[in-house]
Amino acid sequence: QVQLVESGGGLVQAGGSLRLSCAASGRTFSRCTMGWFRQAAGKEREFVAGIRSGGSTVYADSVKGRFIISRDNAKNTVYLQMTSLKPEDTAVYFCAARLSDFLRQTPSVYDYWGQGTQVTVSS
């Protein structure tokens, strides 16, 4: 069982930065593939970034070069550093864990989810 708690969301102006954190409980964190997803109002949940247990990463095209995902297995925490934020980045951001080293971008294959944190980017 893995429990996930996100933090770090808020209101920021376009061009600004935020860092999201996702704290995980449980002893399996280091073996999990972790993902960040987001869901804007009226839209489907979409993949943002993922990181395997070994540290390799994948990004959605819309955030490449602006967002960085990282993890600290000693702290059971995964991060999403977001820079050059745009109004279209406004969404609820979710952290998810998958008990597999196969990184997928499909939300339905993830086993555990956090409650989400709101990110609002004003123009």
What is the distance, rounded to the nearest whole angstrom, between the alpha carbons of the first and last residues? Answer: 40 Å
Low-confidence stretches: none
- Class per helix and strand makeup: mainly beta
3D shape: globular
The biggest beta sheet is recorded as: 7 strands, mixed
Number of helical segments with 4 or more residues: 0
Helix content percent band: under 10%
Element pattern in H and E: EEEEEEEEEEE
User: What's the Cα radius of gyration?
Assistant: 13 Å
Oligomer: single chain
- Binned strand content: over 45%
Mean pLDDT: 96
Number of strands: 11
SSE topology:
Layout: E1 4-7, E2 10-13, E3 18-24, E4 33-39, E5 46-51, E6 57-59, E7 67-72, E8 77-82, E9 91-98, E10 112-113, E11 117-122
Walk me through this protein's architecture.
- This protein is mostly beta strands and 123 residues long.
- Helices cover 0% and strands 48% of the residues.
- The strands form two sheets. Strands 2, 4, 5, 6, 9, 10 and 11 form a seven-stranded mixed beta sheet that branches. A four-stranded antiparallel beta sheet has the order 1-3-8-7, with no helix packed on it.
- The termini are far apart.
- The mean pLDDT is 96.
